[in-house]
Amino acid sequence: MREIRIGGGSEYVLLRIPTHEISDGWYEVEVSVAVPGFVGSVRACLEPVDFKLFEQQLQVLYETLQGTAALRPIEKQVEVMLVCNSLGGISVTGQVSSMGSENKLQYSFEIDQTFLVEPLVQLGKLNGER
């Protein structure tokens, strides 16, 4: 199981990616979100291209401290958006929803550039395996 964690301590988004695809290039990923007052997890289907695009955007955000990096799979069960402000702080927002349901958890928390190193390392390993 490979993990990509954005955030730290009690506020984070954690993606647990199995080592094998479920079918036709899709992964069934466990997505956990923890923010003050709420903790939840769902299973979501993501494609390898979702991780590649996210890694590319996150690398630019890390290097320039400008712009946005977003994980937005076609299935729309999970969304993670990182937006850098003018002071170098990074706002993490998004939502997770359960399969076949209207139930949704929307979240937001703040991080800084140091919290991007580990997700970039893990995304690099994941994308390098293909």
What brief labels describe this structure?
130 residues, alpha+beta, Transcriptional Co-activator pc4, Chain A, four-stranded antiparallel beta sheet, 2 helices, 45% strand
Work out the number of β strands: 8
Helical residue percent band:
10-25%
For the sheet with most strands, the description reads: 4 strands, antiparallel
Q: Which descriptor suits the 3D outline?
A: globular
Structural class: alpha+beta
Query: How many structural units, i.e. domains?
Result: 1
Return the CATH class.
Answer: Mainly Beta
Gyration radius from CA atoms, angstroms: 14 Å
Q: Total number of helical segments?
A: 2
The fraction of residues assigned to DSSP E strands is: over 45%
CATH topology: Transcriptional Co-activator pc4, Chain A
CATH architecture: Roll
* Side-by-side strand order of the widest sheet: 1-2-3-4
Mean pLDDT: 92
Low-pLDDT regions: none
- Could you give the distance between the termini? 15 Å
Order of helices and strands: EEEEHEEEEH
